[in-house]
Specification:
heterodimer, A: 109 residues, mainly beta, six-stranded mixed β-sheet, five-stranded antiparallel β-sheet, 11 strands, globular, B: 112 residues, seven-stranded mixed β-sheet, four-stranded antiparallel β-sheet, 0% helix
């Protein structure tokens, strides 16, 4: 059964303290690995799609990487406005995403 | 451009009543998805539309849940005889076929 596990469940960082969020996946025939950001009371906001092991994508202070078993979302010198829940999802077909339960990130000023 | 919109943003209803949730996808997106997000849980897939057809309804929790899509655009998720366990955020997403899904803001449903 396809599965996505995110860790840690929650993370508190000081402003400027870099860290990484983990997404482990068990999917037969990965077609895509997706990262979303979700703010309280809002829908998930798309960040990145990764398709193959070794691929990396960057956006501002965020960088997503992918291996054959996991993906990392690296946050460099985070700011308080980066506080949110970060969701990871995998897809093995054309449409069904399997989501992890997310990592709640809090960045303190 | 306009994103996915959902209405109502919040809905409070009494147990046993029926509710309808609406989703307007991004223009040109042929695929539409419904998910449910409960507190502390991941997003749970409910149903997928390609055009007006629903090839995968496997995630609908019970026969009280149904959904339709008309004109390849707007979709309605209907929950009949609501129960307290139906309380959750219902999220809609749309995409071009096989491409990244983009989400709406969700409808927060509370069943008293």
């Amino acid at each position: 059964e396809d599965q996505v596990t995110q860790s840690p469940e929650a993370l508190r960082l000081q402003e400027g303290e870099s860290s990484s969020l983990n997404c482990s996946y068990t999917v037969s025939g990965l077609r895509g690995l997706f990262w979303y950001r979700q703010d309280p009371g809002k829908g998930p906001e798309f960040l990145f799609t990764l398709y193959s092991a070794g691929e990396e994508k960057e956006k501002e202070r965020l960088k997503a990487t992918l291996t054959k078993k996991e993906s990392f979302l690296h946050i460099t010198a985070p700011k308080p406005e980066d506080s949110a829940t970060y969701l990871c999802a995998s897809s093995s077909g054309t449409y069904k995403y399997i989501f992890g339960t997310g990592t709640r990130l809090k960045v303190l000023a | 451009g306009a994103g996915v919109s959902q209405s109502p943003s919040n809905k409070v209803t009494e147990k046993g009543k029926d509710v309808e949730l609406r989703c307007d996808p991004i223009s040109g997106h042929t695929a539409l998805y419904w998910y449910r997000q409960s507190l502390g849980q991941g997003l749970e897939f409910l149903i997928y539309f390609q055009g007006n057809s629903a090839p995968d309804k496997s995630g609908l929790p019970s026969d009280r849940f149904s959904a339709e899509r008309t004109g390849g655009s707007v979709s309605t998720l209907t929950i009949q005889r609501t129960q307290q366990e139906d309380s959750a955020v219902y999220l809609c997403a749309s995409s071009r076929t096989g491409e990244t899904q983009y989400f709406g803001p969700g409808t927060r449903l509370l069943v008293l």
